[in-house]
Amino acid sequence: MSPMAIVGAAESERIGKVPELSALQLHIDAALRAIEDSGIPPELIDGIATAGHPPIDVAHYLGIRPNYVDGTRVGGCSFLAHVRHACAAIQAGHCTAVLVTHGQSGRSRIGMTYPDPGAESMHGQFEAPFGTTGPVSMLPLNVLRYMKDVGLTHEQLAGVVVAQRQWAQRNPRAFKRELLTVDDVLNSPYITYPLHAPECCLVTDAGGAVIVMEAGAATALGVRKPLVHIRGSGEASETPMITTMEDLTSSQAFRTSGQLAFQSAGITPEDVDHLMIYDAFAHLPILGLEDLGFVGGGEAGAFIAEGRTAPGGQLPMNTNGGGLAYTHTGMYGMFAILESVRQIRNEAAAQVEDVRVSVAHGIGGMFNHAATLVLSSEAA
Amino acid sequence: MTTAGPRVAPIATPDTAPFWEATSRGELALPRCRSCLTYIFYPRSHCPSCFSRELDWTVLSGMASLHSFVIAHLPAPGFDPPYVIAIVELAEGPRMMTNIVGVEPSPESLELDMALQVVFELQGDVMVPRFRPVDEGK
Ligand SMILES: [Zn+2]
After folding, report:
1. Residues A53, A58, A61, A62: is their CA dihedral positive or negative?
2. Within this chain, do residues B74 and B135 fall inside the same structural domain, yes or no?
3. Averaged pLDDT for residues A44-64
4. Complex ipTM, two decimals?
5. Which pLDDT does position A115 carry in this prediction?
6. Among A249, A328, A247, A224, CA closest to A281
7. What backbone torsions phi and psi does residue A19 show, to the nearest 5 degrees?
8. Searching chain A, which residue's CA lies closest to the CA of residue B7?
9. B64 alpha-carbon distance from chain centroid
10. Cβ of B67 under 8 Å from any chain A Cβ?
11. Number of domains making up chain B
């Protein structure tokens, strides 16, 4: 197996509220900046991967003619899966350089063309009739069960926000930078009980892109930035419906994806210096820490409340501020990858010291899917 | 503060049609595997546990327990917030999404594992299953 690496990475120049760009333009702005970041000639890119917009739309608008196309759309973690698939495709000799792009105008709603699954879909028959309004009404459905069976207090859940606002405060690009106390969170209005407004993700406009190549080929080309080695990856599906999860207090997709990623990288959670867990809602890092094996069952709430993932803690997590405070377009996974890349390159706004191994973990849909990447400054 | 428009109604497909025909008769029914006796939710045309195609549509008791829930504070077409979206565990085993009705939509009135029974409400031209607390002592 030849080692693979992320050789270029960038966000759109502006994130947050960007009404002057369509969703497709956000893909392209990020793609152009990632190409510039890598220093590789654009004509070398022969693979495209994206979710949301059709990959051919993105490739043609950009001006490339790919012979590897990945339109895997498994929710917000799609881009982590794309990176994993790109490694396999390059390994197999199908292509040389794969561009993975994301762009969503979640806030301004410019050029957002996502289809509704329709009243004949299983979602349309068995979820939508009950007044679902997307993830905000469905993804928190397991919180109360977790609180009762595993043990988690409303205060501990609010602690996730408190920790991540401390990171966001250090990041000038973060959308919400004010520090909050547990009481501030608990005194905020409910969006979806038991979650208060600050415990629910932002809705923003942003784009992001990464380029995957074989590490040796990238070095021979002379890329501009230090390589971010892809040491391992995993992904797994469980169910299209949260009601049919085997256990609402633990995600089978999280567990399997994490195990595959750690096994393929030959590491354990103790080896991880920095962690990104997709936080569309405050309970996701709690399940993530437990299902990925960073803490035991029922320990994550206290772990976060004690500041172990906050600045100065032993396991810095969601150091950009996360989907709760940095940015959240709709499919946030790309921004988890990009913060891991910045931390490894030593160019993050809230830089953690000596990040050699970073793990980025994403959720897709309502615990439908998960994908995990193990990234490192070192090839092995 | 209800958003404009009626509640969205489901449209049956060949595999789910018996489910919606049952609700129109005031019954909750699911396919059950003849080989391994698994109740199958959502309705499918084979058993995902043992891959048998031999299924029997079976009328259920309509009894359930409150497995988990949220209280939606954002409006949806035809719904007045706050309203309860829940996952109920049917007495026969499967879990499904529904609304809890006939009770105040507040954390104080809703307790996990409380006993529920099915009721049917017309939505478009389809009877949709919802659940309400079991009347105690009646
Ligand atoms: Zn069976």
Report:
1. positive
2. yes
3. 97
4. 0.96
5. 78
6. A328
7. -70, -10
8. A129
9. 9
10. yes
11. 2
Q: What is the average pLDDT value for chain A, to the nearest integer?
A: 97
What is the fold, at CATH topology level, of the domain defined by A4-112+202-376?
Answer: Peroxisomal Thiolase; Chain A, domain 1 (3.40.47)
Mean pLDDT in residue range A162-170: 98
- Inform me whether the C-beta atom of residue B98 falls under 8 Å from chain A C-beta atoms: yes
Domain residues for the domain of B73 are 61-138
With vertex at residue A321, the alpha carbon angle to CA A215 and CA A175, rounded to the nearest 5 degrees, is 115
3-state secondary structure (DSSP) of residue A172: coil
Categorize the per-residue pLDDT at A1 as very low, low, confident or very high, splitting at 50, 70 and 90. Answer: confident
* Chain A residue closest in CA terms to B94: A244
pLDDT, tens only, B9-29: 999 999 999 999 999 999 999
DSSP string, A238-275: --S-GGG-S-TTS-HHHHHHHHHHHHHHT--GGG-SEE
Give strand pairing partners of A371: A235, A362
- Best probe of the A interface among B11, B23, B66, B73, by most A CBs < 10 A, is B73
pTM (two decimals)? 0.97
- Write the single-letter amino acid at A67: N
* Residue at token pair 């050699």: A356
Mean pLDDT of B60-86: 97
The answer to whether residue B137 scores a pLDDT higher than 60 is no
Cα–Cα–Cα angle for A357, A218, A68, nearest 5°? 95
- Return the biggest CA–CA distance within chain A: 57
Substitution target in A122, A125, A149 with the highest count of B β-carbons within 10 Å is: A125
